[in-house]
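Below is how a single chain appears once it has passed through the pipeline. First comes the sequence as given, then the structure the pipeline wrote out for it. We keep one example in the README because the format questions we get most often are answered faster by looking than by reading.
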Amino acid sequence: MKPTARFTGLELSEADRELLRARGRGSHRERLTARQWRRIRTLLLLDEGMSVRATAIAVGGYPREVSRVAKRYAERGLDAALSDDPRPHPERKLDSAQEAAIVAMVCGPPPEGHARWTVRLIAEQVVKRGVVDEIGRETVRVTLASHGLKPWREKNVVRPRRR
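Resulting structure:
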């Protein structure tokens, strides 16, 4: 992880300053979330010359959050400073063929010596049968849940009522 440059100061353009003041007063006929209001206030306070730490205390945030907002304004402008950065989505652990192989395996009988499938047992068998090189229990659990499978439970059997 590379160290980032320290934030040293912020100077808003006159147009941005007026827009932020108007939005902060609610003159734009839009409802501000707490996060948007805090970012507007952060930019205005930094423009007035407050330090990052003092600004964080004033808006009820953290110094790291304050410097991120200021850096986004300096690098990409007002819209970037007031909005959230897109969050990364982790890549999938299993492709559709691997998921299908797991589901097919679970729909069959459990291995010799076991009464039913468990998440641990499924994870072991998936690796043992060569479906994937390695897999975690949580990945197996999420895969089963997404297909509505609960192989560790007894099958629902309709039993006649005793009178």
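Helices lie at 14-25, 34-47, 52-59, 63-76, 78-82, 96-107, 119-128, 137-146.

See the next section for the split statistics.
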